[in-house]
Amino acid sequence: MIGANYRSPNIDAEKCRACKRCVARQACRLKALIQFEQNEMPYIDQTMCRGCMVCREECPFKAIVVESL
Ligand code: SF4
Ligand code: SF4
C-alpha cells in the first residue's frame, strides 16, 4: 500500500522559484513530482509519493518541506 505509512513532502510556495526545469522533479524516480509546464510551480502527487525525500535533497532552494506532525 502506498500512502498512509509514508510522510510525504510538500512544495513551499514561498520558497519555490518555479524553475524552468524543476531538478527535484527530475530526481523523482516515481514521477510523483509533477511539473506540467516549464516555469510552473510543481506539485507532489501524494498518491504516488513514497516519501523517499530524494527530491528534497535536490531542490537548490529548499522548497520541498515536510510538515511536522
Ligand atoms: S521545487 Fe525547487 S527545483 Fe523545483 S521548481 Fe521549485 S525551487 Fe525549483
Ligand atoms: S519524496 Fe520521493 S517519491 Fe516523493 S516526490 Fe520526492 S522523490 Fe518523489
* Mean pLDDT rating: 91
Pairing-aware structural class of the strands and helices?
little secondary structure
Question: Compute the gyration radius: what is it?
Answer: 11 Å
Specify the biggest β-sheet: 2 strands, antiparallel
Number of strands: 4
Level-2 CATH architecture:
2-Layer Sandwich
Bound molecules: iron/sulfur cluster
Low-confidence stretches: none
Q: How much beta, percentage-wise? A: 5-15%
- The CATH topology annotation reads as Alpha-Beta Plaits
Specify the overall morphology: globular
Distance linking N and C termini: 21 Å
Give the C-level CATH assignment: Alpha Beta
SSE string, helices as H and strands as E: EHEEHE
Could you estimate the helical fraction of the residues in percent?
A: 10-25%
Strand order of the largest sheet: 1-4
Descriptive overview:
The protein has about 70 residues and is largely without helices or strands. It has a single domain (about 1-69), classed as Alpha-Beta Plaits (2-Layer Sandwich). About 15% of the residues lie in helices and about 10% in strands. The protein contains 2 helices and 4 strands, in the order βαββαβ. A two-stranded antiparallel ribbon has the order 1-4. A two-stranded antiparallel ribbon has the order 2-3. The longest helix is centred in the middle third of the chain and has 5 residues, at about 25. It is globular. The structure holds iron/sulfur cluster (SF4) (2 copies). The site of one iron/sulfur cluster has 13 residues, from α1.
